[in-house]
Each structure stands twice: as structure tokens, then as C-alpha cells.
Amino acid sequence: MDSPNSPLQPPTYGNLITILSIDGGGIRGIIPATILSFLESELQKLDGEGARLADYFDVIAGTSTGGLVTAMLTAPNKEGRPLFAANEIKDFYLEHCPKIFPQDQFPFSAAKNLLKSLTGPKYDGHYLHQLIKEKLGDTRLDQTLTNVVIPSFDIKHLQPTIFTTYEVKTKPFKNALLADISISTSAAPTYLPAHHFQTQDSAGNVKEFHLIDGGVAANNPALLAIGEVTKEITKGKTDFFPIKANDYGRFHVLSLGTGDRKVDEKFDARECAGWGMLSWLTHNNSTPIIDAFTQASSDMVDFHLSTVFQALHSEANYIRIQDDTLTGDACSVDIATEENLSNLVKTGEKLLKKPVSRVNLETGRNEDANETTNEKALIMLAGILSEEKRLRDIRSPHGKPSQTRLNKTSVCLYNSFETKEHMSK
């Protein structure tokens, strides 16, 4: 089969709006990376080894570590194809996380880290910044191979700063280097330093940014992605005609979490009732205050989207894959030991075999939906994404569908469309 190297045609030529969203979570980004590797492999079975995730999703959104993954999946290489295949991201984490988050094994290291967290960020970020700049180079936001949404937080003005390809035409000062955006969305308070950079528009106007981790604004960026698309629809952009802003049945969303603590492993109120500033900043190799607001952000978005999709009887269009059974070091965002990283890979692999879960709107808890496994749901999703791309290629005057890739459904759709076109003339 031919590989689908042509750009994804706009949703106006298809039936769906396809969105991929990746949560923040430091080294736990290995979990969604493992999930994405499986999905891309299924797409390659259908459409050839050249298939990449950016060929199928209208929007890829990511926060913090998810923002970095988003950049890796959508930045172009010299051949104009995605810089990273999904199966390369896991190895990227395994190779570089121990250097991004070096583990201090010396005596009294715990006390040393505590003192460091009181006087500055736990890690200086030099290796991470150099690595990101080396990989992403001079690529700017408007050069990504599909639309992206990457949140950060402006610490100077205390407001979210969302970098999205939908805005760069009307707000050229937002057309920052993808490297600067990735460093900013990953700048987790207490762990990594805030990031400052400038952009300049064609008129010479300079815009300054003072940014920290996007998890402060939206650790789960799925709702942001839908919001950006909805704004484009309400503006009457032709890419989405004739879709309506409230037509959630047309959205197909894959939202990937980076893992959560097991329910009975979360903090005990009787214990934290007496905590002061130090305990909220560091407790059992974690930062409870950051864990609390990032997980609350992720769960609230999941609950909201679950409510909307279930209310509209479109729950099958929203797939949330999250592991809420993490314990010990696996809950950390920065314990980058070989053992822990390996265990996180296994967590992602086991998650594929688990049943699809869905939020119980009465309890707010995720429960098994008794439908199928995450693995089978992703196989089905791969088929949907592949068929949607074929349909858009057929309908679009710019698409170039390969005859070897047309199945019976595609041929029928193509013939139907051609007949309507002929009659309209």
C-alpha cells in the first residue's frame, strides 16, 4: 500500500474533526508515548510504513511533557515529514530523561534537594533546553504539519498564554520558535526555571514572554483544542463549513493521560492538615501542591467532556485513556531511574490491555465501560482515521487518493460525490 504522505485535507471534505490531546506529567509522558506508538503502528498496517499521526489528526494538543511530544510529532524534518515517528518517542524519553532529571545518589541527597527547592528550581534545565533547541531548531509554530495547541502560563501577567496555529495569521507575535514554546510549557514550578523569550513581527514590534508550565492553565488540553476549533467554526472559516459550533457529534477525540495515583495512595487529610509550606512543596518524592492542581485540572476536563459527549449520545467519539493505579516512584514526574522508566513503559503496555473506562457522572470516578479494551478501541480508531483521510482525499480537489488505498466504502463515497458534482453542473 502507498503511504499517505499528502497533507490532511480540511474537515469540510470529511465527516469528522479529529483531535489528539496529551496531558502533562514529566517522565510519565512515556505512558502516552507507548499508547501512541501502538496507534501509529495500526495506522501503518492500514496505510503503509510512512503513516504518521500528524497525517490523521486535525489538531494535536499537548501540555508540558505532552507539549514536547506534540512538537516532536508535528515539526517537519528536512523531507517535510514529521521529525519523530511515534515509536521513537519512548526511546527519546529512556535516553534523555536521566540527563534531564539527574538523580543525586550521594549521602544526604534528600536534604540537599530540599534546600535546593527552597532556593531555586530543582533542576537547572540546561540539558533539556539544549536538547529541545537542537531537535527543533528554527522551526516556528506556523510550520507544524498539522494544527497544534500548546498552553503555557504568563507568570508576569498571571494569565494563560495559548500557542495555537489557528492564531498565527492574525497574531503574528505568537509565531514563536517551537523550541521556545516547548521549553515554556515544560517549565514546571519548583522543578525547572521559568522561560523568557521575545518575538518580533514584520513591522519590527517586539513581544516579550515570561512563561511557566502549561499545566498551571490546562494540564489536560483536550477542552482547549475543542475550544480553538469551535472559535474557528463560529468565525465561519471555510475549513469547517458547514459544521456547527455545537455539533459535538462531529468531534472525534483521543485524550491521553500520564497516570494518576491509586485511589488509596493519595494524601490523607489527617496527615496534610498539619502541613506547612515545606511539606506542600516536598513529600515522599513528590510535590503535593503541584500534583493536586494538575490532577484536578485533568480530571475536571475529563468530567466535563464525558458529560457533554454522553449527554449527546456521542460517548464513543470521546476516548480517554488514563491509568489511575500508579504507586510509589511511578507517581513521580522526575524519578528518572532506569528501573522506574522501565516500569512506566510496562504501565503503558498494560494499559492497552485494560478495559475502556468512562466517567460515572454520579460519582465522578472512572469505571470500566464493559465494552472493549483500550487496544481494541485504538484499532477501531485507526480504521476510522484512515477512512476519514481517504474520504477527504476523494472529496478535496487538492487530494490525491491512491487507487490502491480505496476500499469498497471509499469507492461508493467517491462515486456518490462524483454523481452529485456532475448533476450540479
Automatic annotation (TrEMBL):
GO terms for molecular function: monoacylglycerol lipase activity; phospholipase activity. The active site is at residues 64, 213. It is an enzyme of class 3 (hydrolase). Belongs to the patatin family. One of its GO terms (biological process) is defense response. Transmembrane segments: none annotated. A motif (GXSXG) lies at residues 62-66. This is Patatin. Keywords: Hydrolase, Lipid degradation, Lipid metabolism, Plant defense. Residues 20-226 form the PNPLA domain. The nitrogen atoms of the two glycine residues in the GGXR motif define the oxyanion hole, and stabilize the oxyanion that forms during the nucleophilic attack by the catalytic serine during substrate cleavage. The keyword tRNA processing does not apply. A motif (GXGXXG) lies at residues 24-29. It comes from the Eukaryota. It comes from Arabidopsis lyrata subsp. lyrata (Lyre-leaved rock-cress). Lipolytic acyl hydrolase (LAH). Its EC number is 3.1.1.-. A motif (DGA/G) lies at residues 213-215. InterPro entries: Acyl_Trfase/lysoPLipase, PNPLA_dom.
